[in-house]
Write a structure and sequence with these properties.
mainly alpha, Pentacotripeptide-repeat region of PRORP domain-containing protein, transit peptide, 23 helices
């Protein structure tokens, strides 16, 4: 364990939309949608805004024509929310309309509409529909809280009422709803309200990690540490993701020494799955980004010793890191070495290397890389093959193009036989 800590320490050291609720006649924000979608959505909004006694609204909606697209429905629901117009009657018609099954996005927008109007009985009915279809709630459902936070009214009242409504819904709808509610509050900087929701529901690492992610994204390491400490005080053990958020924040802000200390702390206080593969990916990525390729390689070797499989993003960071520091031969050697140490990445690694060589004007070398890959019996990415072939043809090396084409066509024939 101590040797592992020291190796990691040396490696890291070196590598070290909201608008007014007025229902006036101002135009809805539909300009960014396709013309037909915008026209349909505007027609829906106009009909719903006009209302209609009895079944006249439903009759007018029936005359809209063929089944509505999800884009048109979503645009209409957003516009109704912006104008402070209840969408429940339109949604009820939509749910009964032949050929139309409201999407998960539409259901979330209906919840948002009810929240924007502070109509919590309507929100409860919307959540019942979400539960009936076993759909997940997303941040979109709680986007109305941004308006509450910006207005003179307190966001706390809206959060309290929303959580009470979620409690009434229960089941999976509540579970996804609480997580998305915490996420929505963190995204608008309402951390106190988010912590209150966590304390009122369940002190889970996944909930606290949402707050950690938001703090780290803003570069607020001190605030992230406060959240981290709050987890421990609440008897909620940080998981690997919790530690990784802190590590990424330190490295992103050039605080390599503190990152070293954090890695050691992770080793001493974390369970067996800390650090995990993502920890190594963070370390290698930042080392490669800093051009410390030898240090990054040591971290990767440690990862293999721990029997962890690197993701393709790690290989991408290495290949680009070597390439952009002028160590092209090392990039080639890395790709060849990984073809035996991590065979699942071979196709992607060779294809990326070929593209980079082509981009730098080394078309013949790029062709050789693809030839080497196909000689191994592996098919390159089609885009890499086409790009390199065009480059070779342009420079008058039709002979090399023909060789690559001959090998590549074998894969096409083989694919045809398999089907």
């Amino acid at each position: 364990m101590s040797r592992r800590i020291s190796r990691l320490r040396r490696a890291v050291s070196a590598g070290g939309a909201t608008s007014s609720s007025s229902s006036s006649s101002r135009p809805s924000n539909l300009r960014s949608t396709e013309p037909t979608t915008a026209a349909t959505a505007n027609a829906i909004v106009s009909l719903v805004a006009a209302g209609g006694d009895g079944g006249s609204l439903e009759a007018d909606l029936d005359r809209l024509g063929p089944p509505l697209s999800d884009a048109a429905v979503s645009a209409a629901l957003r516009a109704l929310t912006e104008r402070g117009i209840p969408a429940c009657r339109f949604f009820a018609w939509l749910s009964r309309h032949r050929g139309v099954s409201p999407s998960a996005r539409a259901h979330n927008l209906l919840v948002q509409n009810a929240g924007r109007l502070a109509d919590y009985p309507a929100m409860a009915r919307a959540l019942d529909q979400v539960s009936a279809r076993r759909l997940p709630l997303t941040e979109q459902a709680f986007a109305f809280l941004e308006a509450a936070a910006r207005s003179s009214s307190s966001v706390d009242d809206a959060v309290t009422a929303t959580l009470k409504t979620l409690d009434g819904a229960g089941g999976p709808c509540r579970a996804s709803g609480v997580f998305s509610l915490v996420k929505a509050l963190a995204s608008i900087g309402e951390f106190d309200a988010a912590v209150w929701v966590i304390e009122e529901t369940a002190m889970r690492a996944s909930y606290y990690n949402v707050l950690l992610a938001a703090k780290c994204k803003d570069g607020d390491f001190r605030g992230a540490c406060e959240v981290f400490d709050e987890m421990r005080k609440g008897s909620c053990d940080p998981n690997a993701n919790s530690w990784n958020y802190l590590l990424g924040c330190l490295l992103k802000n050039g605080r390599a020494t503190e990152a070293c200390d954090l890695v050691e702390t992770m080793e001493r206080s974390g369970p067996d799955d800390i650090p995990n593969s993502l920890t190594y990916e963070i370390l290698t990525y930042h080392a490669c980004k800093a051009g410390k390729m030898d240090s990054a390689r040591k971290i990767l070797d440690q990862m293999f010793l721990e029997k962890l499989t690197p993701r393709i993003t790690i290989h991408t960071a290495f290949i680009k890191g070597y390439f952009y520091t002028g160590r092209i031969e090392d990039a080639c050697d890395y790709v060849r070495a990984m073809s035996t140490r991590d065979t699942h990445s071979t196709n992607r690694n060779y294809s990326l290397l070929a593209k980079l060589l082509h981009k730098s004007g080394r078309n013949i070398e790029a062709g050789r890389v693809l030839y080497e890959l196909m000689e191994k019996g592996l098919r390159p990415d089609h885009s890499a093959y086409v790009t390199v072939s065009k480059g070779l043809h342009k420079m008058g090396r039709g002979d090399l193009c023909a060789e690559l084409k001959s090998l590549f066509q074998k894969f096409i024939v083989q694919s045809g036989l398999e089907h």
